[in-house]
Structure prediction request, 675 residues.
Amino acid sequence: MAKPKPKEAILLVVHPLAYQGARRFADWEELVDLLRERLRRTAIELPGSTRLLLLFSFNHPRTALACVTEIFSAIKRRFPRDKHPDAPLPVQIIVHVRRRDGGGEPFLDPNADLWTRLAPGAMHVTSALRYRWEALMADENLPPHHFEQAAPGLFRLEIAEGATITAPRLFPHRHLLHKGSHKPCFYCGMRQHPPGACPSRQLPPQAYALSILGHLPVGEIGDRLHQALSDPKPHIARIKAGVQPQDLRHDANLAVYVGYFDCFRIFQPRFLMAAAFTPGSRWTVACSERLKIDNHNLHLGLDCLRVGNHGRAEELFEKEYGKTAGKHAFALIGLALTALERGRTQDMATYLDRARSMAQTEKERIYAGLLLGRYYLLVAPDYYKAKETAELVRKTRPDCPDSRYLDILVEVQKRVEPHTLEALRKLLRDEPEFFLTAMLDPFLTPVEGFVEEMQHGLLADLQQRADHALGEAKGACEDLAGWLPADDDRLAEQRRTVASLEEERQQHSYYGLLEVESIANGVTQGCQRIVREVLAERRKRLRETIDRYDKLLAYWKQYPYPMFFRRCVHLLHESRTLLTEAQAALEQEKGKEFRRAGELIDQAARLLDAFADKEGAMRWLQAALESGRIFGLRLLGCEIAVGLASVLLFALAPYLPLPNGLARLADDPVLRRQT
Prediction:
């Protein structure tokens, strides 16, 4: 499924036909006002929107079409005095995809000529939306439909007879959270119990079910929570008996019920224990598996608060507050929660304000500020104080998602502004946990339609990203198969990961889709990394083979007896040809050419091995010939030396004082002639 890019939006243009409407409906003006008011519950009205041409921004085309269809049905029920009840409403509709800061389209002029070509009551889409329709609606399961050309650049959407376009709601049971006679519970927002009886008070810090909730199919969360809220007694009994993390993993219904309370756990006593006994001064909502219990008063006081022993809890918190080196901010927060459960709400505000002023660390300042902001939102509603408190928390840490969410909650209780809804959209997109929180939070009821439409668009966007990432991962694995042998463990591991991601994708859970996107991107990067590694290894091997060739070539060039090994020159020539082809193949960086390059390098290496096998014989022959040549030269030298000595001897013999016999022998003419 696809969704408009982050900088794009779906534009719904509604053009009421005033003349035809006034003739059919006596209260036509009221009908247009109702249409406009109902659209405002779900979408953002854009600047320039008037009664003559309504302009609204949606996050997904399906929700835009479903919203209009639902409103038209409601209007027909609301205004039965129609002179032509079987005729479509005299309203023209265009749905378009554009940049969020776009404008200038011709249909933004209510008097444009194109409006005369459009049928009233029909849904029309622009060519820009028509072009992306299949991608945007890939997983939407729309009824059978087709398009007809209505005007240049506009297409009429024709839906099968008897079918309509609807948008299933993620959590249609939000009204159950408002059921009850109590004020909204500070700890969870329900009205079924006061804070002192909230089931969340019995939950340990480590009982965290939001991760389980996030891995359930999105449509299943609302159904399971509906069942739990309809009959909460069994789950409350389980919580009182003690809930451990392993219990949540084996009971999805219990996990959903506990997961609801997890959405607001930072306002509950169990989070005070986690914050007080988790090391570190930075704000984090994560709870350590092992808390460092280093304060007896706080620990025992929280335990007394959990069992409802408020008097003893108050004594212990005051004792800790009175210590010179005590955890003063946390002790004051403990006193505030004790005062809340005892009905002393004014004391609660005093304690929280004092805790905020005495806070020494970021964690303490943000924690106290969030609690005080919720106090002014729920316990003693005061928009300006709540707004001021939220702004102070934002100043402490501007990127804190909890403070951003508090600021949004404060704003929507007062009025609904486009920038507030945009801030909520960004928060839900960036912080997965708040996607679940916003889906279940009763305090977003004033903007319930916006939240549903927004989350539908965000979910569609996530599905598109997950599908795209999964497709890229599958393609990367197929590409990797061209680089590695079929039995390579690295290839098998990547394929197993992709197979598990395909199963996860079918679950259609929010956290699962996030994991599919993230892990699939990791698979793609991993496959690309493996390709780079094997390519680098093969290039290294090619360089080593070329170096070996160069050494053998240099040896051959200086070899003095090539005539005895004429085959070697052919081995070197063939090797050079193969290595050149291998180098060209590797430069293409394709799996098929990569394998071919490996084969070429292997062939060249075998030829060089054959040359190397002859190298011993070549060296032996060279040594033998060199030894023979030296022996011959030495022998010739000896013969020359002896001959010269003999000539010299006979030449000088008459002049030398030799013995008589020897002198006569030297003078013998026969001997002289022979010499």
Confidence is low (pLDDT under 50) at residues 1-6. The longest strand covers residues 8-16.
